[in-house]
Every structure is written in structure tokens, then in C-alpha cells.
Amino acid sequence: MNTDNLSFGQRIDPENNLVELWLTHGALDWIKQQDWSDKNVTMFGCGMGDSWLAKRCASLTVIERNKEWFEKSLKYAMQNNVPNISYLLRECNDSSGKADYYLELPSTYKPDIIISDDAYRSEAVFNAIEYFKNKEGGGILICDNYNQSYIWRSPSALEALEPFEKLIFEQPDHEDYNKELEPDGKWKTAIIFIK
């Protein structure tokens, strides 16, 4: 695959030649060690990495608000013969008061893992905590751009996640953040275990 069109931090899985999720490399390496073959995953925000993730889990439901990304991701999944992805297009703008609409989980689908990598990130955290606390066995919430400069800073969400066990993977070579005002603002992916 031609990697010229990939953004900083994106990489190709040498095992299947698919673009991996756009998460920190440490988080991706951790995901590769997990057996999610019986797990249902819901992800907010789509991309070329959807196909890679779908090949690792029982089913993947992706909710996207941008029609262009929705169409690109669907096309990539079809080209790579990935049948266990369902895409839902919910067009809206971030911070436009449509969090309930965008973040609503399909009523017939019960995810074991929720990935937040798009709009309404704080609301996604609160919803996932509520959902997993009421789900037998709990579940995993993955937050990309965790407490990252220019992307997502939410003291209330961080406080809500404080009691839960978590792994936080920082991307060591990330430089696009305000080092002077926000020295903790590097690109991070958090994997949170909610029960």
C-alpha cells in the first residue's frame, strides 16, 4: 500500500497490509495483544483503520458525522472485503447541541468496547461510564487524544474517569502541542476499564 497519503502517526499493519486505527502506537500494540474475536465494538469517528479493527473483533459499528469520511471508510472496507462493519451516518457539527443524537447507541447493539475519536468526546465519556456501569462485566472505553492540546481538554471528564483503572499511551515523537503552556498536552490514547 502507498503510505504517501497517511498522516503523522498512521501506520500499516505488516501482517495484513491494512491501515491501523489512528491511535498512539503503544495503544495499537496493546490492542494487537488482545483477543477481541468475541467482542462487539462501537466507534465514534471513522477512518481507514476501521477495516483493521473489524478484522480483530466480532462486529464493529461505526458512527460518523462527516459524509465524506463516511463514504471513504465504507469504500475502503468494501475494497478489503470486511463484512462485519456497520456504518451509521449522523450528520452534525461538534458542539452544536446534538450529542444525544450523535452518541446514541443502536438499541439492538450492546458493545463491549467503545472508542471515542471524534465529536462530543466529554459526553461520550459520561455516556460510556453510565452504559458500562449498568452492563454485566463492564467494558472498555478507548479515548484518543486524551487530554491533548488543541484537541480535547475536559477536566470534568478526567475527574469522572479518575476512579477507573486505565492505561495511557503517549506518542513519544508527537511535537504538535503547546509545550510551554500545556506540557502535558502530547498526543495520548487512554484505555479505560469501567465496571
State the shape: globular
Number of strands: 7
Give me the number of helical elements: 6
- List low-pLDDT spans: none
Radius of gyration: 16 Å
Question: Residue share in helices?
Answer: 25-40%
The main sheet comes to:
7 strands, mixed
Secondary structural class: alpha/beta
Q: Determine the oligomeric state from the structure.
A: single chain
Elements, N to C (H/E): HEHEHEHEHEHEE
Average pLDDT metric:
93
Which percent range describes the beta-strand content?
A: 15-25%
Order of strands across the main sheet: 3-2-1-4-5-7-6
Distance between the termini: 40 Å
Description:
This protein is an alpha/beta fold and 195 residues long. It has helices spanning 25-32, 50-54, 67-79, 99-103, 121-133, 155-161, and strands at residues 36-44, 57-64, 85-89, 113-116, 139-144, 165-170, 188-194. Strands 3-2-1-4-5-7-6 form a seven-stranded mixed sheet, with helices on both faces. Helix 3 (67-79) links the parallel strand 2 (57-64) and strand 3 (85-89). Helix 5 (121-133) packs parallel to helix 6 (155-161). It is globular, with a radius of gyration of 16 Å.
Task: Please describe the structure with a list of short key phrases separated by commas or semicolons.
7-stranded mixed sheet, alpha/beta, 26% helix, 7 strands
Topology:
Layout: H1 25-32, E1 36-44, H2 50-54, E2 57-64, H3 67-79, E3 85-89, H4 99-103, E4 113-116, H5 121-133, E5 139-144, H6 155-161, E6 165-170, E7 188-194
Parallel strand pairs: 1-2, 1-4, 2-3, 4-5
Antiparallel strand pairs: 5-7, 6-7
Summarize this entry quickly:
This protein is an alpha/beta fold. Helix content is 26%, strand content 23%. The longest helix has 13 residues, at 67-79.
